[in-house]
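Q: My labmate handed me this sequence with no annotations at all. I'd like to see what the chain might look like in three dimensions before we decide whether it's worth expressing. Could you predict it?
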Amino acid sequence: MRFSESPVAGLEIVYDGEPLHEERSAFQLIQVFQHPAFGRMLVLDGLVQTTERDEFFYHEMLVHVPLICHPEPRNVLIIGAGDGGALRRVLEHPSVERVTMVEIDERVTAVSREFLPAISAGALGDPRADVRFEDGHAFVVDSRDTYDAIIVDSSDPVGPGIVLFSAAFYEACLERLGADGVFAAQIGTPTLFPGEIRMAVSNARAAFADVRPYLGAVPTYPGTLWAYMLAGRKVGVDGREAMRRASDRSIEGWYWTPAVHSAAFELPRFVSQLADGGSSPFVG
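A: Here is what I predict for the chain of 284 residues:
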């Protein structure tokens, strides 16, 4: 069996091995592999989504950055994230009372619970979690609830997933945020998908008053260097406040730390220029 970590021609990373599980859901091909270095690996339509060994690189930066920037998050919405990794990290914040997770493909969650249970670590069965299987965009548009944080763990902006990168979607999210509400989303890698980052930040700035791209690293993602964005009416805390809040909440990441939190917003020139709509050394 061969799968690729990237749809970009010439950048295929191939792993030869028989899947532990394979099925085609109503939405995509779902596979689970055993990788010699990264443990069990969830692959959707040939693209690596997460692994047992390095999931914390991604989930900690996607979740702890926005939640540390909120003084006391209680009600959180997650769009996507069917493996339960983001949900697990949200529930590490003791003030959280309710998390609504909206995943379109129920089979992704079922397969993850069976074959990669360590990623969610019981979070999918937590009484504070309201796990729903429906379209995330429609949920946000139709919802009348107010959230302290909205976290979008979406696929790349290809096909139906492109709506989650639109200005209209970001505007709908802003309407669902409370006064101190924060929004965060993954927006791809600046080395392979610069156009994706340029589009996401531009559309977000059409909706939110304050948009701040930031960076992390994910070993099993194409390009390794991964971009996210934090947004809201006014977002961000300094390193000292991040340290205080992390201590008060007993948040201790394997990748995320208060120092990493602050440094993540210090962008290389080619990334900051890209986020501002400029050119990049990479094509896209």
